[in-house]
């Protein structure tokens, strides 16, 4: 079940355990209406029913619902609420890895505007936790390292270089301007902020606990977001 806010709030629900992957929508206090079913055939090319571990999360900026099929699969879909259409997305973990087990009981999704993506628990008796990033420079989850090393747009460049004791964040701009770098932890708490016009920031990673962090850069209209994993 997924709640979709708006002028007319809605609730979407996926029926599991049936012969097909029935999908419904209702307004608050209204009646249920049929929506296109989640595809039986997903990334595997085989018919799979939604079962234990299925989950959903709404992304308001996109107007899309993202969903796990569950049922001992890694299949992942999105549903466009504007035109009532389903899309097959990359399997959980792709393209950077593969979970140790497929999604069953305990599978869950949650959207994070800070991370600009969907967090997923695989469940199935594991503690695996993955991130599906939306932007072109924020790749899918990875067990270690930095996602997306460089972003270039016209005369704007943004790069991250990893060193044993620190991370250097370098940038070039077409005009001189003050830049701001902020870092958030996995629960969205601001843990670092700095401004300068020197063309780089140096972050002492020895002071950061092991975990996933989101770096956000902005200088006038130039912006970038990266994921940093400390281990």
Automatic annotation (TrEMBL):
Top-level taxon: Bacteria
UniProt-listed Pfam families: Por_Secre_tail (PF18962)
Record domain Secretion system C-terminal sorting: where: 176-230
Record protein name field: T9SS type A sorting domain-containing protein
Taxonomic placement: Bacteria, Bacteria division WOR-3
């Amino acid at each position: 079940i997924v709640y979709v806010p708006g002028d007319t709030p809605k609730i979407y629900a996926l029926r599991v355990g049936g012969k097909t992957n029935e999908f419904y929508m209702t307004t608050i206090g209204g009646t249920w209406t049929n929506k296109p079913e989640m595809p039986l055939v997903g990334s595997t090319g085989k018919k799979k029913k939604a079962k234990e571990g299925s989950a959903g999360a709404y992304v308001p900026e996109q107007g899309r619902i993202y969903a796990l099929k569950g049922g001992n699969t890694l299949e992942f879909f999105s549903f466009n609420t504007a035109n009532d259409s389903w899309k097959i997305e990359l399997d959980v973990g792709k393209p950077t890895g593969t979970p140790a087990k497929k999604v069953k009981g305990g599978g869950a999704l949650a959207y994070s505007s800070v991370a600009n993506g969907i967090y997923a628990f695989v469940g199935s008796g594991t503690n695996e936790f993955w991130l599906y990033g939306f932007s072109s420079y924020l790749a899918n989850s990875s067990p270690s390292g930095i996602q997306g090393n460089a972003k270039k747009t016209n005369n704007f460049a943004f790069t991250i270089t990893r060193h044993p004791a620190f991370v250097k964040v370098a940038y070039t701009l077409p005009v001189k301007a003050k830049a701001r770098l902020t870092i958030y932890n996995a629960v969205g708490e601001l843990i670092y902020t700095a401004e300068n016009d020197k063309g780089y920031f140096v972050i002492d990673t020895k002071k950061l606990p092991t975990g996933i962090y989101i770096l956000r850069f902005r200088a006038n209209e130039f912006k970038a977001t990266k994921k940093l994993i400390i281990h």
